């Protein structure tokens, strides 16, 4: 064979073999891919069957839980229905029993009415028989009995009449004093009249609820610590503080302002705020005393004496602020002394300190004049100042012209239009007397008259008074108030016994 033919055959054979090889390989890959696809399909079918079985299991379990819950609710409803039926039966029984008792009571009432009619008839017959026996009519016999009773109890009747006459005389004298204080020379000046309530503005009505607290615990803590009544009503953004003592009202006002600024309002924080307010009041008292002394132009006044003078800022006399009244008296007395050529500084000092005893007259027994004399002596004030101030109510004779000027200035300041209100002073005096009477019991630590004197809130020493004794103490206080005081309406005695247990973890 020729080489060319051999080459052609070799090329043809190689091409055919390569073609067959590629075809076989493609077929193999196709079969492999189909087997993989079938395997994947089988796995997917198995996975779907598993998911379907899981879903069926969960559905069965959910259905069983729903059935159990429904069964439980049906059981609850059945029991509730049984209870309602039982209650309905009980109510029916009670209703029938009450109806029977009602009919029985009506029957008894009719029987009692018949018996009463019989008794009245017997009484009339007896009266007629007695009139026949005594040969006197009922009215005549009554007059005879009154004559005999009057004769036998003549001494007791005389004593009772004397007592009534004495009390009436005291009342007439009191009215005469009141009239004399009003009928004085009129003086044109500025007027300041204190009331018994302070209005406090708050940022929003939401604060009211926080001040009241849960079940009123915050407002109760405030009232107990301060001794003032906190009135929270429907008036928007306003709280009213009511107390006959201006200092208590000021303490309550400052304490509430501190709490609102702080934002935290609870009993512990309230105690801190009240203490802070009391400290603030002491600062204001000191500043008021220093300002009064500076206004009058005095020097060398003891700081403690100025502090007592500053306390008059929170004291009223017949509704007139005592510190402003004292400043008026000092300036008036000084002006009069200047016109008459007398010692102006002495007149001003005597006028400024003429009512200094009123700073402590609610704490210490005695008239404000006697207390003022003792205070000025304690702080080594000149004798001529004491002599001038002690005569302003004519309790002591006038020793010089300065005393007359102080008395005249006191009358001028008190008698100007609108300066004083006698009814307010009586009201305040009645409340002070009420608190003083209650504090006479040794077991009591402190007390506050609130709600315009309709309630007295008493705090006792828990170590001296137990729960049973607190009940007896409330009755004793109420009885003493009834015996010793005159007051309109009624007074509620509220005895509080508070026990606190404190321990420290270290």
Strands, helices and their partners?
Layout: H1 3-134, H2 138-152, H3 154-182, E1 197-201, H4 206-212, H5 217-226, E2 229-231, E3 238-242, H6 246-262, H7 267-296, H8 303-311, E4 316-317, E5 320-321, H9 322-340, H10 344-352, H11 368-378, H12 383-389, H13 401-415, H14 422-438, E6 444-450, E7 455-460, H15 467-484, E8 492-496
Parallel strand pairs: 7-8
Antiparallel strand pairs: 1-3, 2-3, 4-5, 6-7
Helix pairs in contact: 5-7, 6-7, 7-8, 9-10, 9-13, 10-12, 10-13, 11-12
Summarize the entry for a quick read.
The chain is mainly α. The termini are far apart.
Describe the structure.
68% of the residues lie in helices and 7% in strands. It contains 15 helices and eight strands. It has helices at residues 3-134, 138-152, 154-182, 206-212, 217-226, 246-262, 267-296, 303-311, 322-340, 344-352, 368-378, 383-389, 401-415, 422-438, 467-484; strands at 197-201, 229-231, 238-242, 316-317, 320-321, 444-450, 455-460, 492-496. The strands form three sheets. It has a three-stranded antiparallel sheet with strand order 1-3-2. Strands 6-7-8 form a three-stranded mixed sheet. A two-stranded antiparallel sheet has the order 4-5. The N and C termini lie far apart (121 Å).
CATH names the topology of the domain at 197-420 as Hypothetical protein af1432
Note the quaternary state here. single chain
* Integer-rounded radius of gyration: 48 Å
Distance between the termini: 121 Å
Structural class: mainly alpha
Name of the top-level CATH class of the domain at 197-420:
Mainly Alpha
Question: What proportion of the residues form beta strands (DSSP E)?
Answer: 5-15%
Average of pLDDT: 78
Based on Cα principal axes, name the global outline: flat
What's the architecture of the domain at 197-420 in CATH terms? Orthogonal Bundle
